Each structure stands twice: as structure tokens, then as C-alpha cells.
């Protein structure tokens, strides 16, 4: 590995850490400017001024904002996400199961959507500007144009209500078998696949078409190789860098952007957990979930940048 590659990878990692630090600042500021009083929302409208003052003191709300930020950041770095204001439970323990559920849902959607998007991208290139290419582009663009919650309700109406193939809500429990868990997440997976499919497919198509203009592709055509073999064996490997980037971006979305889908299907994941506690103005929970979402998103984007650097032969083998 050359010095240039090591330098670029180190810069990407440092940039990711700086972005994460900036995200913690934005999360803290965002939770502090939420309307309403935390103590009032916990004790209710009938609370006495003395009780409110005592709770604000216990929660540290009388401390300067800068002190509260560094205290929260220091605890988070040690793995202490605090306790929920609404029920007094440890946030890290409450989140662990829901994070596993969200990762399971994202993994199932990725296993379906990534191979399908790459295959459709290859197919669109093979039949470029012909009816398969136009039909694939039209269908994928139509699905990505529909808001997620509408798409979710459409899928729920036809699959769960009309056809009664699957349950209308995606309830998962620790004691469920693997097959039952797959059945429970089938509809959210369908919706998430529709949402991310178009972006990955079109980027795959664009990346491969860009490579198809190269001279060595013309040489392969002159040798009499089949069109699909040229695309799969010669164009695809050289277009892998932008494809990996867009796949990583959509993986980040599958983890971070599932909030709407989880709410629609009442799926017990991180998104549902976040929405429940935003409505209750449970600031520590909102901060913890926001921090985890930001960390996952930045981690996957940084990973995509590093893979793109390592996949660049001009950086790996400089002259």
C-alpha cells in the first residue's frame, strides 16, 4: 500500500470523526431548542413550582448548556447513554434490542435490493435505449417518486388486506423463529427495496455505460465476445468503485432512514423508539438515538470513501 493511499485513508477517517463530533453538537442543540419544558412534560400540568424546580435540579437543567453538552458527550464516549426520563430505564439496554431489529430489517432489505439493483442495471445496459431499459427506468423512477408512507400503505392494502398473504403489522419478538421473523418483516422489506432500488440501479447503469466507452471494451467487441459477457466480465469490474459508493450510501439510508417505514408497520426498531420518545419529549432518548443514527451513517459513508480509494488502481500502483 502506497503512502498516498495511507494518507488519503487517514484523512477520510479524521474527517469522519470530525463530522461525528459536529453531529453531536447539532443533536444537542436540536434537543435543547425543542419547545416546552422537560420537567413540566414529566410531572404534568398540575405539578407545583417547587416540584418542577427540584426536578430541573435533579436533571441538571439549571447547569450551563456547555457543561451539560460535555457531560453528555463524556458519558456517551464511555458507553453510558443515560436513563429515559419517562420510565427510568437504562437507554443502552432499551436500545440494544431495537437496534438489532433495525439492523435485521436493513440487512434483509439489502440482501434483496442490492443484487436486484445490480442485475437490473446490467440488464438496462445490455438493452440500452430499448424497451427493457425504458421499462426498468420507468418503474423504478415511479416507485422512488412515491412517498414511503404512501407506498407502505399501498403494499399493506393489497398484500395484507386484499390478498391476506402477510400480517398488516410487523411485530417481532425474541422468541420467534427465523421463518416467522422473515414473514413479519416481508412487507417493510418490500417497501424499502422499492425505495432504494431506483437509485442503485440507475447509478449502476450510469457507471457501466461510462466504462463502455473505453477502448478496451471496443477491443473485446472486436474479439466477438457476447454483449452480456463484455458487460459482466470487463465493464462491471472497472465500474465497481462508484457502484460500491452508491451501495454504501443506500445501506446507510436503510439503517437511518427506516423511521417512516417502522412507524407505518409498527415495527419495534430504532425509528419507532425515536418517534415514541420525541412525542414524550424524552431528551436523553432522542439524543442517544440521534447519536447512533449519525454514527452509523458517517461510518458507512467513510467506509464507502475508503473502499473507493482502495479500489483505485492509480492510487494503489502509482508510477
Automatic annotation (TrEMBL):
Keywords: Cell membrane, Membrane, Transmembrane, Transmembrane helix, Transport
Residue ranges occupied by any ABC transmembrane type-1 domain in the UniProt entry: 99-304
Membrane topology summary: Multi-pass membrane protein
A GO term from the CC aspect: plasma membrane
Alphabetical list of InterPro entries matching this protein: BPD_transp_1_N (IPR045621), MetI-like (IPR000515), MetI-like_sf (IPR035906)
A Pfam family: BPD_transp_1
Cellular location(s): Cell membrane
UniProt GO BP: transmembrane transport
SUPFAM superfamilies according to UniProt: MetI-like
Transmembrane segments: 12-34, 103-125, 137-161, 181-200, 243-268, 288-311
Assigned protein family: Belongs to the binding-protein-dependent transport system permease family.
Record-given protein name: ABC transporter permease subunit
Source species: Parasedimentitalea huanghaiensis
Amino acid at each position: 500500500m502506497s503512502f498516498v493511499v495511507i494518507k488519503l485513508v487517514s484523512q477520510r477517517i479524521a474527517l469522519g470523526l470530525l463530522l461525528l463530533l459536529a453531529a453531536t453538537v447539532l443533536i444537542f442543540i436540536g434537543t435543547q431548542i425543542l419547545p416546552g419544558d422537560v420537567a413540566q412534560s414529566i410531572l404534568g400540568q398540575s405539578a407545583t413550582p417547587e416540584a418542577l424546580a427540584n426536578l430541573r435540579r435533579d436533571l441538571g437543567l439549571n447547569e450551563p448548556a456547555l457543561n451539560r453538552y460535555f457531560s453528555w458527550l463524556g458519558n456517551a464516549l464511555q458507553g453510558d447513554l443515560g436513563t429515559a426520563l419517562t420510565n427510568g430505564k437504562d437507554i443502552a439496554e432499551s436500545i440494544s434490542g431495537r437496534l438489532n431489529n433495525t439492523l435485521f430489517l436493513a440487512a434483509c432489505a439489502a440482501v434483496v435490493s442490492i443484487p436486484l439493483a445490480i442485475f437490473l442495471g446490467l440488464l438496462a445496459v445490455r438493452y440500452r435505449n430499448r424497451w427493457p431499459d425504458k421499462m426498468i427506468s420507468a418503474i423504478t423512477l415511479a416507485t422512488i417518486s412515491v412517498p414511503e408512507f404512501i407506498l407502505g400503505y399501498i403494499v399493506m392494502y393489497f398484500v395484507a388486506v386484499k390478498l391476506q398473504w402477510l400480517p398488516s403489522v410487523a411485530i417481532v419478538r425474541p422468541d420467534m423463529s427465523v421463518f416467522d421473523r422473515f414473514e413479519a418483516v416481508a412487507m417493510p422489506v418490500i417497501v424499502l427495496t422499492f425505495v432504494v432500488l431506483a437509485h442503485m440501479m440507475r447509478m449502476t447503469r450510469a457507471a457501466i455505460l461510462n466504462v463502455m466507452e473505453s477502448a478496451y471494451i471496443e477491443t473485446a467487441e472486436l474479439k466477438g465476445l457476447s454483449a452480456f459477457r463484455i458487460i459482466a466480465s470487463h465493464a462491471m469490474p472497472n465500474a465497481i468503485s462508484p457502484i460500491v459508493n452508491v451501495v454504501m450510501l443506500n445501506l446507510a439510508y436503510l439503517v437511518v432512514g427506516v423511521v417512516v417505514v417502522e412507524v407505518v408497520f409498527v415495527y419495534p426498531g430504532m425509528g419507532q423508539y425515536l418517534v415514541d420518545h420525541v412525542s414524550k419529549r424524552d431528551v436523553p432518548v432522542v439524543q442517544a438515538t440521534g447519536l447512533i443514527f449519525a454514527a452509523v451513517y458517517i461510518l458507512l459513508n467513510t467506509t464507502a470513501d475508503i473502499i473507493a480509494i482502495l479500489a483505485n488502481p492509480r492510487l494503489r500502483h502509482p508510477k
